[in-house]
Amino acid sequence: MDTLEAMHxxxxxxxxxxxxxxxxxxxxxxxxxLRAINALxxxxxxxxxxxxxxxxxxxxxxxxxxxxxxxxxxDIADLSTEMSRLQTTPRGILRVQTRVxxxxxxxxxxxxAFLERHCELKIDLRLxxxxxxxxxxxxxxAIGFGPMTGATLLTRKLVASPRVVCASLTYxxxxxxxxxxxxxxxxxCLTFRSxxxxxxxRFLRNHELIEIRVSGNLQADxxxxxxxxxxxxxxxxxxxxxxxxxxxxxxxxxxxLPDYQASPFGFDHDVQVFTHRDRHRTLKVQFFFRLxx
Length: 293
What we know:
The protein is of the alpha/beta class. The chain has helices spanning about 5-15, 20-25, 30-45, 60-85, 100-105, 110-115, 135, 170-175, 225-230, 240-250, 275-280, 285-290, and strands spanning about 50, 55-60, 90-100, 120-125, 140-145, 155-160, 165, 190, 200-205, 210-215, 220, 235-240, 255, 260, 270-275. A hairpin with a 4-residue loop joins strand 1 (about 50) and strand 2. It is rod-shaped and about 110 Å long. The strands form four sheets. The protein has a five-stranded mixed β-sheet. Strands 11-8-12-7-13 form a five-stranded mixed β-sheet. It has twelve helices and 15 strands.
């Protein structure tokens, strides 16, 4: 009998009053109970019971031991319950990092219902367009664009992220629609800030790469700025499909150059969820991944 079992036996003897009564409750012989108590007394180095032919009482050491053992066994029971709950209920803080636009437009709207279903979970949502540092920032899950490689990373593709050339109907009515990429040089193109003196938009058709230098009166670091400008009718933008899909569906923006693949190399990446393999073992991360099933 190990120490933990002996401690349970000791408590049962205290409650039952005799070795034989405790043995009947535990399904053990009185001799087995006696051996367990003797071994426990040897282990703690003190006599726990005063034994007599009429009755059995606790020694001073036994009274102290009984109080301490009761606390220990209750703590162990509570811990077992807690561990069991962790296997079925996601708990704690889930730290999620994602790009600013992606987080605001697509991730944040999912969170209220998710948190309502999992009321013992808290989410720390961090919006940043910088690189993810899983170790330094203690991030559980990152949502963004590739590449992010590593033998310890687990990834799941959420959605493809092709680039789309588009503009508002107001702009199209005023300035027309380019039918080939070279015509973009005559339009006001709203661009991301670039190290190049004049930004280049690249297209692929029939295995032929076409590079067009574009210009316009607005450049910015964030796609939402360019999207809002395009919605206002200022010019033409080249943005990821997930950014403007709702606008195109609602007719606020119209796609252009459908026969050409925009930005075919080195710029487009699928939107993915990333986590460490060891973190994926935690229930909170597994449940968050299910948001995207």
